[in-house]
């Protein structure tokens, strides 16, 4: 048997997870903009949900980002995400609802982080806007996921990858985009196992003529209420472009 087949078999071999194993591997991908390189573990699952409002001088939007993660092995999980519904509150106009985007995909831990070694993972998602009347809205995302705890309780996380999204001026046309995220997370002294603070910078570059650069800066906090229950809150703002929306959000992650 070839070496590649042996490695693949080892990676995908199912492992039974007991309840206490799920508590040990629980690690939410909320609330920062990045996705961690780790998965939730074989036989485990979690739901990560919240609400987010985006505010501008012209009004605001309200969305309900929701993510389901299901662990198949100790290194591989399936994922499904959607905003459920997006509500717009334009000034001087009625509230409008728009169809959300639904994505399905997977995350793979290629290299597990250890004390002196960073971790590396891969994320792939595909989906579409849940409204056939607006035409083909195929969306795809891929990213390399990097995490490095270079001093105790201080972690640097980097995500970088390509996405394919509908062009805002023509839903039938696709545009490529390079996405990047950088997050620095610090556990509070004496409470690092329960409370963490972070700052993040995230955005991307549209890969087309006249490429536009987008960048956001944010901060937030997460509180581990129980071994498989986390609550969080965050804020971020877009730094580039003519409009600088302010976004506020809060949510919870529950493992089972």
Structural notes for this entry:
Mean pLDDT is 87; it is low at 1-20. Strands 1-3-4-7-8-9-10-11-12-13-14-15 form a twelve-stranded antiparallel barrel. With 256 residues, the chain is mostly beta strands. The relative contact order is 0.17. It has two helices and 15 strands. β1 (45-56) and β2 (59-63) form a beta hairpin.
**Average pLDDT rating:** 87
Q: What is the share of helical residues? A: under 10%
Strand tally, please?
A: 15
How big is the Rg? 19 Å
Q: What oligomeric state do the depicted chains represent?
A: single chain
Order of helices and strands: HHEEEEEEEEEEEEEEE
| Structural class estimated from helices and strands | mainly beta
> Regions with pLDDT < 50 over 5+ consecutive residues?
1-20
Distance between the termini: 37 Å
Largest sheet: 12 strands, antiparallel, barrel
Query: Per DSSP, what share of the residues sits in E-state strands of 2 or more residues?
Result: over 45%
Instruction: Give the neighbour order of strands across the main sheet.
Output: 1-3-4-7-8-9-10-11-12-13-14-15
What is the number of helices?
2
Shape summary:
globular
Write the layout of secondary structure elements.
Elements: H1 3-12, H2 19-25, E1 45-56, E2 59-63, E3 66-73, E4 76-82, E5 86-90, E6 96-98, E7 101-111, E8 119-129, E9 138-151, E10 154-167, E11 170-187, E12 195-207, E13 213-226, E14 229-238, E15 246-255
Antiparallel strand pairs: 1-2, 1-3, 1-15, 2-5, 3-4, 4-7, 5-6, 7-8, 8-9, 9-10, 10-11, 11-12, 12-13, 13-14, 14-15
